[in-house]
Structures are given as structure tokens and as C-alpha cells.
Write a structure and sequence with these properties.
This protein is mainly β and 466 residues long. It is built from three helices and 31 strands. It has a five-stranded antiparallel beta sheet, with no helix packed on it. A five-stranded antiparallel beta sheet has the order 2-7-6-5-4, with no helix packed on it. It has a five-stranded mixed beta sheet with strand order 12-13-14-15-19, with helices on one face. The radius of gyration is 21 Å and the shape is globular.
Amino acid sequence: MTETNSCETDSTLEEPAVEDDSTANSMPDAVETPSLTNAGTVFEADDENEANSVDRDDSASLFSTTTTTTRSKSPNTRKLNRLCRRVKAPKIVQPLYKYSSHVREDHNHQIFGVQFNPFIDRSQPQVFATVGKDRVSIYECERVNSFDTIEDSLPGIRLLQVYADPDTDESFYTCAWSYDAVTADPVLAAAGYRGVIRIFNPVKHQCTKNYIGHGHAINELKFHPIRPQLLLSGSKDHSLRLWNIQSDVCVAVFGGVEGHRDEVLSIDFDLRGDRIMSSGMDHSLKLWRLDKPEIQEAIELSSGYSPNKSTGPFATIKEHFPDFSTRDIHRNYVDCVQWFGDFVFSKSCENSIVCWKPGKLCSPWQDVKSQETATTVLHHFDYKMCEIWFVRFAFNAWQKVLALGNQLGTTFVWELDCNDPNMTKCSQLVHPKSNSTIRQTSFSKDGSILVCVCDDSTVWRWDRGN
């Protein structure tokens, strides 16, 4: 692995490695739970789908077997061009962040996910994880010391640990951070093509647990914002699953009769942890409430469940009916969704992030019923050259800054701290060697560092200017 800063003049980045379509499209083989000691290898830093996407309509089958288009292709491009809005280019301002350094991982495959650990104190060096191919890598953002020379004065990225999955066919798509409520140790979860959730303890340098339940690949993981033991997963098998990683049970499954009719691509909890929003290849966005008495009871029961003290398996809740569903916001795969207070930000392959809410603007979310059809679109955050799927945006901790990369290696940054969304400032982060698709972005806890990961195995660090 090599590290580069702005003072260096090494050659242009290599062409990105293209993901093997057979890996992305085929159904995973049956997987047995490996023993905890053999779940993988943790190395210290010092050691060492255009499966012609189908134009789906409202009558798409729940049991659709449409193969996934490769994540480097643009689905339904011709149809998309007819549906695009006429947009006005945003006002471009001075960049909010400046380039610091970048590194290249040695697997020569796409890096699909990146997440900072939000539970590290701001006074400590910030740590983030990346996932790509069969690797989970953990990095530390180095600080500038007063005694550094001019050549070494730019902050860098230092590799701490690398986990290599025992299955070389694995391709990790997503990761998420939490912590152990008993020991306070950091917890990192990762999952991908094989549909197996790996739970890591970076302090012990171990993969401590594995969860198998989904029948296909897992596209996104999210931990509950209040209960660190609750983990949510969204899968190619059209469902979401809520896990309790403390008692090792599946608390609830969201999907079925009125659930998603194709891959679930993105999921998110609201800030209170009472609601889930999910999105997928069926162009739909669905709201699932967790504050229902039966789900709350299941969550409480899961915390005290022990297989040694119980006569039977845990009674997993099956939630077939979402509390709201719409296909009116996007006309293509919805590959990223996040809550923004009581509003929702979501994107598709349409060069626009949409801010919207279920129901009418003045209606509180408690009044939104499952049969509700109305939606209110508040604003479009437009950008250019991002017409492939599985490209995800990120907010900073205060949801005052929004960042998204595109296919050309440019990162768009919006400043959201204004009352009028039409006055939102947008800046672009560009670098002559950043020319590959940026899959995901992530902000450090204090918002001072922005990290982007790309298809050419590179990890980019941008620091906020004074």
C-alpha cells in the first residue's frame, strides 16, 4: 500500500479493476457458520449488472428473479434520459475542503463502503473503516505535528488493521460501527455478496461473531442510534432484518406481502430510532415503524433471551406491511436514503438528491397512514455525471454538510446551514489523480475530515479549511 500527498508527483492512477459480473449476479452458495476463531485473519499494519436492466412496472412480481446489473453500469439509461428534469446548475463556491492525501489498497478492486467510527472522542485520532473485495481495512487519520518538516506537514492516512475473509469469493459492500455496552470496546460490522454479517472487535483483533439469515447479498448495514446492540441489514432477498448482536437473535424481518419487490439497496434509522426508511431496485421507498407495541416487546425480549434458558428459538417478528410506501419520488433504482429530521433525502441514477417527506408538508409524521399516497418534494440537489447505481452520499454529524461523489472522481459538497434551500452553497472537490467513480463518502465526528473511496482501490482524505 502506498500513500501520496500533494507534494508528490507519482504517475497517474491505474485503470480501475472491473467487478466480475459473475460475482455480482450469481446466487451465493450455502454458507455454514465458521467457528469464531477461524472466521478470518486480522493482519497488523506492520505485518503483513448491464444484465439489461428490466423496465419494471407496478405489476412486478414479488418473486422477481431479475439479475442485478453490474454496479459499474447505468440501468435504463435511455428511459432515464426521457425522465430527467430540466435542472439549473447550482452556484459553485470556493471548496469547503482541501486535499490532504490518498492511499491505494492492494487488492485492485472497487472499494464500496467507508465509515468513520462516530464513538471516538474528538480529542483522539479519528478512525475509519473501508470495505472492498474480501477486505475490511481500518485506518487512522494522522495529525500534523509542530515539529514535522514542510514535506511531512500534510496530514496522512495510516493503516491499522486489515481483515481478510476466509472466502476469497466474498465482496464486502457495507460496514457500520457500534460499541459493546459492557466493555465499551468498538464494534465493527461488515457484510456483502455472501450474505454473511461479520462482527469484529478491533481491540482484540478478532472476528467475534457471524450472522446468517439473508438468502442473498447484503447491501447495507446500520446500527440503531440509541441501542448499540441493534443492527439493521438490507438485502438482495427483498427484506430487512433487525438483529440483536448481544443475544445473537434476529428480532424482526421486514418484508413479504407488501414489502420490497426487488433488492433492498439502502436503509436508515431516524435520530430517535423509532422509524426505518428503506429503498430499493423496485424504485420504492418504504417506512417501517419500530415504536409499535409488538416490535418494542420483541426488542425487550431479545435483550434477555438466552438459548440455554429457553425451551425454543426466539420468536422473530414478521412485519409484512410497511407504514408508508411510495414510488413517486424516483423512476429508477433508489440506492441511497437517509433521514433528515422528519424529512428524507434519497437519490437514484438521475443526477439529483431529492429532499421530501411522506404526506403533506404540514402533516405530522404520526398522521401518515399506510394507505397514504401523497408526498411532498421540497428540493432537488442537482449534480453531474453520476448515472450508475450504488453511489452513496453522507451527512456530517450535525447534518449541516452533505457530500456525494460521481463517476469522474469529483466530490460535490453542499452547505445546508441556510433557511432557503435555493441559496444552498455547492462546491466541488477535484484532484488531477482522482478520476475514478467515488462509491461512498464519510465525515469524521467533528466534520473536519471527509474521506472518499473509489473504484480504483483508492482512499482520499480531504480536510476542512479554516
